[in-house]
């Protein structure tokens, strides 16, 4: 198990980011950026695995979560403000570039970092949410909805209807979440089911039917099975979420137009190694039967894709497979960032003579 240390970096005068760090201080730097909802500790499996082989691993509580600044100030959570925080985080490590790994909104933020500061990205790995989509506002992903599954006349916003719900009824939505934060988090931490046929995601009818199909409040913790995360990690995560509530983290969804202007000014083509991890059971971030991957494929000249049989929280459900995929990606595409590359004296000899 990794020895994890706690750190805090101040930025933008009155804000701070708390982060976890592990592994040798001089090891190649890899940053793990969580999404909604999440905190640094939800990367515990990856922190242990990557630090054990010699990486310097950093995982922040993103703004709005955990011990980082979590004000009810919507401007704190636009992509421009989040990138400012990420650059402060990177600077606090003493490095000027890193491998960035992001999931969900964390993938949106790492994609924004890669767009705005490509020099700070040695390699980019995104899970479930492709580069050049969510961080570019509605136009970055809404036109890519599978309209055979989500006819526009019935599902104007496709599976992203819940995002429109935030814009139209934010405070009421937060009140619903906050009735039972632990129950909500546990319900979202359940194993995925195999998909035999594609069906409309429950997120496609939130404005009409409500969350979880119209339940008056999130299901209680006693109504769902064991969470995907280990019990101690899950309990720490829930404690973090109960501290902040869902308002700050959900405010990431309130800036589509502003984010489009911020990132849309730049072409955002990437030549450095990039990997995307498809979660084949993810019915919301559906990258297999929709066109959601098209912008990433167009924008990245060195793209690796891999598919894992899991749901949206693929790194909780199949951590070993996620770690193996990222390990292989780094070894094959960016070997200079593998720990010990320059110092291990590794020599390959061909044509050994049989005795």
From TrEMBL:
Keywords associated with the record: Hydrolase
InterPro entries: AB_hydrolase_1 (IPR000073), AB_hydrolase_fold (IPR029058), Epox_hydrolase-like (IPR000639)
Pfam families: Abhydrolase_1
SUPFAM superfamilies the record matches: alpha/beta-Hydrolases
Keyword Hydrolase among UniProt keywords: yes
Record-annotated AB hydrolase-1 domain positions: 28-144
Family (UniProt): Belongs to the AB hydrolase superfamily. Epoxide hydrolase family.
Protein name per UniProt: AB hydrolase-1 domain-containing protein
């Amino acid at each position: 198990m990794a020895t994890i240390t706690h750190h805090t970096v101040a930025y933008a005068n009155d804000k701070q980011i708390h982060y976890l760090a592990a592994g040798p201080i001089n090891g190649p730097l890899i940053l793990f950026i969580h999404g909604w909802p999440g905190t640094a500790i939800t990367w515990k499996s990856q922190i242990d695995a990557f630090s054990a082989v010699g990486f310097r691993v950093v995982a922040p509580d993103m703004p709005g979560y955990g011990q980082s600044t979590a004000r009810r100030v919507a401007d704190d959570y636009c992509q421009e403000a989040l990138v400012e925080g990420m650059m402060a985080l990177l600077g606090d490590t003493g490095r000027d570039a890193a491998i960035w790994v992001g999931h969900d909104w964390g993938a949106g933020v790492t994609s924004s970092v890669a767009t705005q500061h490509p020099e700070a990205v040695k390699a980019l790995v995104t899970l479930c949410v492709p580069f050049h989509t969510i961080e570019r506002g509605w136009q970055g992903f809404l036109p890519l909805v599978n309209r055979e599954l989500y006819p526009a006349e019935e599902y104007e916003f496709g599976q992203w209807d819940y995002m429109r719900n935030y814009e139209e009824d934010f405070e009421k939505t937060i009140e619903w979440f906050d009735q039972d934060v632990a129950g909500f988090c546990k319900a979202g931490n359940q194993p995925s089911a195999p998909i035999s046929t594609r069906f409309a995601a429950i997120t496609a009818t939130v404005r009409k039917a409500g969350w979880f199909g119209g339940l008056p409040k999130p299901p209680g913790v006693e109504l769902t099975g064991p969470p995907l995360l280990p019990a101690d990690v899950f309990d720490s995560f829930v404690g973090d979420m109960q501290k902040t509530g869902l308002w700050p983290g959900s405010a990431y969804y309130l800036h589509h137009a502003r984010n489009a202007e911020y990132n849309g000014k730049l072409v955002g083509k990437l030549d450095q190694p990039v990997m995307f991890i498809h979660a084949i059971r993810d019915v919301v971030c559906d990258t297999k039967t929709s066109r959601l991957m098209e912008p990433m494929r167009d924008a990245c000249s060195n793209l690796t894709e891999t598919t894992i049989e899991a749901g949206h929280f693929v790194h909780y459900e199949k951590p070993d497979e996620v770690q193996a995929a990222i390990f292989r990606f780094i070894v094959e595409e960016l070997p200079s960032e593998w720990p010990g590359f320059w110092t291990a004296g590794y020599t390959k000899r061909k044509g050994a003579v049989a005795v």
